[in-house]
Design goal:
The complex is a heterotrimer of chains A (297), B (542) and C (343).
Chain A: H1 2-6, H2 15-25, H3 27-49, H4 87-122, H5 130-140, H6 143-154, H7 158-185, H8 188-195, H9 200-236, H10 248-255, H11 264-296
Chain B: H1 2-25, H2 30-35, E1 36-41, H3 56-66, E2 71-73, E3 80-82, E4 85-90, E5 96-101, H4 121-132, H5 147-151, H6 154-157, E6 158-165, E7 168-173, H7 180-184, H8 194-202, H9 208-211, E8 219-225, E9 229-234, E10 247-252, H10 256-265, E11 270-271, H11 279-284, E12 288-294, E13 297-303, H12 313-321, H13 325-333, E14 337-339, H14 362-371, E15 379-384, H15 395-408, E16 412-416, H16 420-429, E17 434-440, H17 447-454, H18 457-461, H19 471-482, H20 486-503, E18 506-519, E19 522-523, E20 539-540
Parallel strand pairs in B: 1-10, 1-11, 15-16, 15-17
Antiparallel strand pairs in B: 2-3, 4-5, 5-7, 6-7, 8-9, 9-10, 11-18, 12-18, 13-17, 13-18, 14-18, 19-20
Helix pairs in contact in B: 12-14, 17-19, 19-20
Chain C: H1 2-29, H2 34-39, H3 46-55, H4 62-74, H5 88-123, H6 128-142, H7 145-159, H8 182-188, H9 194-232, H10 235-242, H11 247-284, H12 290-300, H13 303-331
Helix pairs in contact in C: 1-13, 5-6, 5-9, 5-11, 5-13, 6-9, 7-9, 7-11, 8-9, 9-11, 10-11, 11-12, 11-13, 12-13
The chains are: A mainly alpha (297), B alpha+beta (542), C mainly alpha (343).
């Protein structure tokens, strides 16, 4: 603070820290970010603090209600499921699987998408090809539908559903990267670099990529919420993760059988999916409006 | 001005919402609901002819809805009452049964068959000869195996079926058998239409006999979509004076929780097989009825009497004394069963109410065991069946409980379980020390318990899990079949009970209840203790 | 313009061809005999297989095989299902309309909810109303549709007992299948009391429609809101104000039209999202739709059905998106490319 008042004219915050300033202004977005960090901490340290194993069955404690219900007990905070497994433990492990896999899938899709998109954006030959139109068409199709179709072809299973969702997520990264790269290629700083004789590769890594990070983060959060929804939907349809692995969507479909006598067995995993997606979306929204505000200034 | 737009919108939405709710909450399809019954069943029937398949699903979907039998069981008293045979007579030597058939009984008229005559002796001959006579043109249609009749040896018991006149039939037996009438009243002994069969044979599509059924029952077949639903309509000319609803629909719903949910919302009027864990929910709801009745079944713990030390009746008695049946009933059956003291459940006329039970007495058990040189180093296996059955919903849990009890008398128990078909095969081989299993009867005759469970012949056919053969016992139960009057037979079965209680080849544990859940506007729906559900006579209150 | 139309049609045909090729190739990818996977017939004798071999022209080269496959597709011979032994095209034409119907009603409902609320939020940009609607929409946008449907069932069907939870119509009505759209079928049937049946169908439809339209309404709300905010900051709106028009005149004469027109295709495209969500919700409400059918086919390893179902659903979505594109181009020729959804 002191420094900034002395040397005001030198204080040019980087675009990224400008965005961060804008982001912090929105309390909701900040709370969302805190929630998101909380979830990440939970999935990282969860296994060390849960008292039970997610697959351990306890036949003496079937369908125990949550702690606050009249017959609930403190030993099972969120109650137990039809096989006597602790719901809280399973939700934590389930979030780990659902959330963890989703992050991984988004990163994979981003990597592949950016690579192809950059290539398409920098090479004009590919520009007006059929491929672009095909890409546009696939973008209009919901990723989940693409994922269901891919799983239908590959067969149910965790690995297959991961492939399916990754493939379904790639087109949008290609699209945004291609558009971004194409727009940047017209800008003076890139032209200047090109005139200096920099190679395409060099231009992309040193000039365009740093400017793209923000866009990628925003698209990444968007894709993350889609990936979480999709992987839990596939789990729910028993097309993805198979029992007894704890996955939030699969837990929901397992809870379906006892939904009417033990509502907590579907309330807890559903609420976990919901809260994770809400916090991801809040952060995404916050980032987007922060970016928009920054560009307006 | 935004306020104006907003106002209009709010009003518009309120209107839409009110319209929707008004439409929704008004229950005005009362007429239609009254005219039909929806039954949520657990699976798709494999055929519409119960002669071919003994599974409960097939029986439920065909036996009592589409067909009649010569004789019927009264669901209240378990007595045999007239069906399509208005009266019957047994010759003195018990070898010839004469049936007088009911007149003016019509078969279903459907788009695929229009009967030209009433039911008569030809239909009886056809229905019995189809499974009895290996050269009958319909015998091998639909890859038929007729499991019920063959497992009881009815094909060799019946020597001949003779038509006396259009409405009188004689059945000749090769030996007297007082359970014969009961077998004719089971769900499987249905009467088919001979005329329809002839027509189909002429059209060269005989397999349609079992797929597009024609019978004399209260409902006629309309449509079947596998795994979706079955439709039946009222048989207008039904011979019995019964209220029959206009429509009967089976909504095939494999998930038991979904069946319960549909019962709650009123999409089903009746559901099959409510799960034990859900019974309390049904009891709590005012608009639902849970009917329970002791079933004709017994769950038991059988010792392999061909193996030492289980060939010793004192050891078997000691083991029986070491377990507390009351606790087992609570934990395994959630109290929805009655304690078994003998083979026969209370709903049968042969039930002996004063039969004494081996009381729970671990001290005496220990003494008896020591007397027979069973020390604390003794180990035994308990085989627990891996599947859920009415007579034993959780054999593994029961085995664990027994394990606990036997530990108190110094016996170490190993629990053994295999996959079901493997389990039965190994059981048949006799590798077990003891096994937790059970039996459900198909007809009301007590012989259906005594013979398959413990007779010498049943060791060979595989239903005698104790491998116990007692000539005296066999003599008693064979003698019982030669008498017709219930009193004499019951007295003989009491003798048999005494032999079993003394020898203890198996420990009877429980007779489990059977359940039926339906909405409270459904009336006259009784649990049929001998199997299939009956919708004839069931109606809806308004 | 003609050039544009031709290019789009070209793309459409090309995409459909790719889909057909993919579905043809699937028969070879799936486990088991490729001829069985194509025809759905499990051959018991060698001569049967040989007959089918010739029928599908498997004695020819791969290209001719594919041409023959296209020919058969065109003639409606999509093979038969392993599970039901029914012709697949017939199965699909019973199940697909049920899903389309569900999605169509849900789309109407979402537009009725989403657009007005989007306008209210957009016009009150940066005020409390906007803030509230936007935050609530974020919740609706994040809720997993299958969970929402379950919650609806527990509250409205099981606790309150207002709605049925399975199928499209009480089974006591036996409506013959004609169009596959239940309301139309009821109207065309010879049922005595059609009003009752339609009411019953509506009751069955309400919970599934509501659960899938909530997600979509929030998306539509956000698209509308963003568009309204953009339009209201345009110069011509300011110009309209300076011409002395009052607030409502500005909105009705300039705002609505300019805000809605450009986002029309985006709104219509939500149909595909709805269709996907409908496929999931169908399994919960035992709705006899294509999603339920396709998922059963996947469980049972019914390869001909998966092949045909994938082709039908993907084909429908592609045809739908391209025709929306073309229609938009016809209405608004100046716009060059479809805009990305901004929410």
């Amino acid at each position: 603070m002191l420094k900034s008042s002395l040397y005001q004219e030198e204080q040019y915050p980087s675009p990224m820290s400008q965005t961060w300033q804008e982001f912090k202004k929105s309390h909701v977005a900040f709370v969302g970010l805190c929630a998101l960090i909380f979830f990440i901490v939970v999935i990282l340290v969860g296994p060390f603090v849960t008292p039970y194993s997610p697959v351990e069955q306890n036949t003496d404690a079937l369908l125990i209600p949550p702690a606050w219900a009249p017959n609930g007990g403190i030993s099972y905070m969120l109650g137990t499921d039809a096989l006597g497994r602790d719901v809280l433990t399973r939700v934590i492990y389930g979030s780990r699987v659902t959330f963890g896999i989703s992050i991984f899938l988004v990163l994979m899709a981003m990597l592949v998408g950016v690579f192809i998109g950059a290539f398409a954006g920098m090479n004009r030959g590919v520009r007006s090809s059929f491929l672009n139109h095909l890409l546009d068409s696939t973008m209009a199709i919901p990723t989940l539908l693409i994922a269901i179709i891919i799983v239908a072809i590959l067969g149910p299973g965790l690995v297959n559903s991961m492939w399916a969702i990754t493939l379904a997520l790639i087109p949008q990264f290609i699209h945004y990267t291609r558009d971004f790269v194409r727009a940047e290629m017209e800008k003076e700083y890139v032209i200047a670099a090109r005139l200096d004789g920099a190679s395409s590769m060099h231009i992309f890594i040193h000039s365009i990529l740093p400017n793209m990070i923000e866009m990628l983060v925003v698209q990444g959060t968007l894709a993350l919420s889609i990936a979480i929804l999709d992987i839990s939907a596939l789990g729910f349809l028993s097309l993805g993760v198979q029992a007894p692995v704890a996955e939030l969507g699969a837990m929901l479909s397992e809870g379906l059988d006892v939904a009417y006598i033990a509502p907590w067995s579907i309330a807890a995993p559903g609420a976990a999916i919901f809260l994770v997606i809400v916090s991801v979306n809040i952060v995404g929204d916050g980032l987007r409006s922060a970016l928009r505000n920054r560009l307006r200034h | 001005m935004t306020r104006l737009v907003l106002d209009t919108l709010v009003k518009y939405f309120a209107l839409v919402a009110v319209w929707f709710l008004a439409g929704c909450l008004e229950h005005s399809n009362a007429n239609l609901r009254k005219s039909g019954i929806v039954y949520c069943s657990e699976g798709s029937p494999s055929t519409f002819n119960p002669q071919l398949d003994t599974s409960g699903t097939t029986v439920d979907a065909s036996s009592h809805q589409l067909y009649d039998r010569l004789l019927e069981f009264d669901p209240q008293t378990s007595k045999i009452v007239p069906g399509l045979a208005s009266s019957w007579k047994v010759s003195r030597d018990g070898l010839i049964y004469t049936f007088q058939l009911r007149k003016q009984v019509s078969f279903h008229t459907t788009p695929y068959h229009e009967p030209s005559r009433f039911f008569n002796a030809n239909d009886v001959m056809f229905s019995i000869n189809r499974w009895r006579d290996k050269n009958h043109p319909f015998h091998n249609i639909s890859d038929a195996e007729y499991p019920y009749f063959f497992s009881l040896g009815l094909d060799s018991l019946i020597k001949d079926v003779v038509r006396i006149n259009g409405y009188r039939v004689e059945i000749h037996l090769s030996k007297p058998d007082s359970s014969f009438l009961a077998n004719l009243a089971t769900d499987f002994a249905i009467i088919l239409s001979e005329e329809y069969a002839e027509n189909l044979l002429a059209q060269n599509t005989p397999q349609r006999l079992d797929e597009e059924p024609i019978g004399t029952g209260p409902f006629k077949f309309v449509k079947y979509q596998k795994d979706r639903h079955i439709r039946y309509a009222r048989h207008e000319g039904y011979w019995q004076e019964k209220d029959v609803v206009q429509q009967l629909v089976y909504d095939i719903t494999p998930s038991s929780s979904l069946r319960l949910a549909k019962l709650m919302t009123g999409e089903c009027d009746v559901i099959s097989l409510p799960a034990h864990s859900e019974l309390d929910i049904i009891r709590e709801r005012n608009n639902l009825v849970l009917d329970e009745k002791p079933g004709l079944n017994v769950g038991y713990w059988a010792f392999n009497t061909s193996k030492a030390p289980f060939d010793n009746p004192e050891v078997r008695r000691a083991l029986a004394m070491a377990i507390d049946k009351t606790t087992i009933l609570e934990a395994v059956y959630f109290g929805s069963a009655i304690k078994a003291t003998g083979l026969i459940p209370p709903s049968s006329w042969a039930y002996q109410a004063d039969l004494r039970d081996a009381s729970y007495n671990p001290l005496m058990a220990r003494e008896l065991l020591e007397k027979n040189n069973i020390g604390s180093d003794f180990e035994m296996d308990i085989w627990a069946m891996p599947v859920e059955r009415t007579y034993n919903p959780n054999a593994l849990m029961m085995a664990e409980l027994i394990q606990g009890y036997l530990e108190q008398v110094g016996i170490t128990v190993n629990i053994v379980s295999f996959e079901w078909s493997n389990f039965r095969r190994r059981l048949q081989g006799g590798a077990h020390d003891s096994v937790l299993i059970g039996w459900s009867a198909d007809n009301g005759d007590p012989d259906n318990f005594y013979r398959p469970l413990l007779s010498c012949a049943a060791i060979e056919s595989g239903t005698n899990r104790a491998k116990w053969c007692n000539p005296l016992y066999d003599e008693v139960i064979n003698e019982a079949l030669t008498y017709d009057d219930v009193e004499t037979r019951a007295a003989l079965y009491q003798t048999a009970n005494a032999i079993v209680a003394d020898q203890m080849p198996l420990v009877p544990i429980a007779h489990a209840y059977r359940y039926q859940a339906f909405r409270n506007d459904v009336t006259n729906l009784d649990i049929n203790p001998f199997g299939g559900i009956r919708f004839g006579g069931v109606k809806k209150l308004q | 313009m003609t050039y544009y139309l031709l290019r789009r049609l070209n793309l459409l045909i090309f995409t459909l061809l790719v889909l057909c090729l993919a579905s043809f190739y699937l028969a070879f990818l799936f486990p088991g005999d490729e001829l069985t996977n194509l025809s759905g017939v499990r051959f018991s004798t060698e001569s049967e297989r040989l007959q089918s071999f010739e029928y599908y022209q498997f004695d020819q080269g791969a290209f001719l095989q594919f041409i023959r496959y296209l020919e058969l597709l065109w003639q409606g011979e999509w093979g038969i299902s392993f599970a039901s032994n029914e012709p697949l095209l017939q199965e699909i034409s019973t199940f697909l309309p049920a899903s389309i119907e569900l999605s169509a009603y849900a789309l109407i409902l979402s537009l009725l909810i989403g657009i007005p609320l989007g306008f209210i939020a957009g016009l009150n940009h940066n005020k409390l109303t906007d803030y509230t609607i936007f935050s609530v929409s974020l919740l609706g946008y994040s809720v997993p549709v299958f969970w929402l449907a379950l919650l609806f069932i527990i509250v409205f069907a099981l606790q309150l007992g207002w709605f049925p939870i399975s199928g499209r119509l009480s089974l006591l009505y036996d409506i013959p299948h004609q169009t596959g759209f239940i309301i139309l079928d009821i109207l065309r049937s010879d049922l005595a009391d059609k009003g009752e049946a339609i009411k019953d169908a509506m009751l069955h439809m309400l919970l599934p429609t509501l659960s899938i339209s909530i997600v979509t309404s929030t998306i539509i709300l956000r698209i509308t809101r963003r568009s309204v905010i953009e339009v209201m900051s345009q110069e011509y709106i300011k110009a309209a104000y300076t011409r002395g028009l009052n607030h409502s005149q500005v909105i009705f004469r300039h705002g609505i039209r300019n805000a809605i027109l450009p986002i029309m295709p985006q709104l219509a495209l939500q149909f595909t999202t709805l269709l996907t969500n409908a496929m999931i919700v169908e399994t919960i409400f035992s709705w006899p739709g294509i999603g339920n059918w396709l998922i059963q086919a996947i469980y049972q390893g019914d390869y001909p059905a998966i092949r045909a179902g994938m082709l039908a659903v993907a084909g429908l979505v592609v045809i739908f998106t391209v025709s929306i594109d073309i229609m938009h181009k016809l209405i608004d020729p100046k716009r060059l490319n479809r805009q990305r959804v901004k929410i």
